[in-house]
Amino acid sequence: xxxxxxxxxxxxxxxxxxxxxxxxxxxxxxxxxxxxxxxxxxxxxxxxxxxxxxxxxxxxxxxxxxxxxxxxxxxxxxxxxxxxxxxxxxxxxxxxxxxxxxxxxxxxxxxxxxxxxxxxxxxxxxxxxxxxxxxxxxxxxxxxxxxxxxxxxxxxxxxxxxxxxxxxxxxxxxxxxxxxxxxxxxxxxxxxxxxxxxxxxxxxxxxxxxxxxxxxxxxxxxxxxxxxxxxxxxxxxxxxxxxxxxxxxxxxxxxxxxxxxxxxxxxxxxxxxxxxxxxxxxxxxxxxxxxxxxxxxxxxxxxxxxxxxxxxxxxxxxxxxxxxxxxxxxxxxxxxxxxxxxxxxxxxxxxxxxxxxxxxxxxxxxxxxxxxxxxxxxxxxxxxxxxxxxxxxxxxxxxxxxxxxxxxxxxxxxxxxxxxx
Length: 421
Fold this sequence. Notes:
It is a single chain. The protein has 13 helices and twelve strands. The protein is of the alpha/beta class. The longest helix has 39 residues. It is globular and about 70 Å long.
């Protein structure tokens, strides 16, 4: 059996890069001075320390914008993709609602914008059944406020049907929110086609790009994206920082969900964390330079891992489209076992049974259910994420370890294996 690479120093081989990524050493080096020497508040406009921090934040804003073809002023810093998704979805929905005098969450009646009273009420939002929990829960919160929601289904490969989306858009639709890359199965949705359809229909298009940013090419103009959510810790940057791209031309207006000092153009109040912004900016710059080479390398490693597993094991299913997929993701179902038993037995390997944000629940994955998998096969599924620090020795070790453990579990549970077959 191939041993894990020596630099691991006894720690498990990490293959859960969709959950989080390690901070790239180059990112950490750039951040460190802003914790100790350059510690000014970027909103302090009266002295050098504040100006220095502000310059660093604006530089980071530009680095992030450059990776997606946006303008610097279109980048709003947040605490992460969850906050960005909440701000985009609730912000657009409530502002449209506000202009038409609907009741606010606290029961008061919002004022109508002059001249808007006779227009069609824009209280309809479209999203997808396989979205991240923070999108689905944001939409559920809006449903409780009286908004109308449409949840698009996906096919067995995990992709939406563009005709279904087109048919779902009505005169009441204000926003379509479809994630760029699924966090469990790694499937890439046809963003440019979705954006074109939304632009033609006159509705805003938001995408949760937490898993897409820095992993696949993104261009907000070419893809007609109006709002995009970004996360730092998915792209070898620090945790606790993210961003929301908000288009300025044509202008996207949204209602803030945090009240305070009016930072970030009044959309996200609170002191901007300079070191974290710097880290996200450098991470974006590195991703821009290395994306193509890294994608080619990871696809080679992923294909090697899949080939080795399939050579050893029968009754293995790849969940989601294998071609329309980021190169560092595999989601596999091993018939006849339970994924939680598999991960428990893999002491020297870190993989997951699904989204880290949904791990507090024991119910089958809503993503795999949407693909049409039954509960037994969903419960036999694991997510394997490869990343920047993954090497071929890790792949050889993982393939051997996973195959051996699946074989052991199937031997120990012959009844389960027979029923699955």
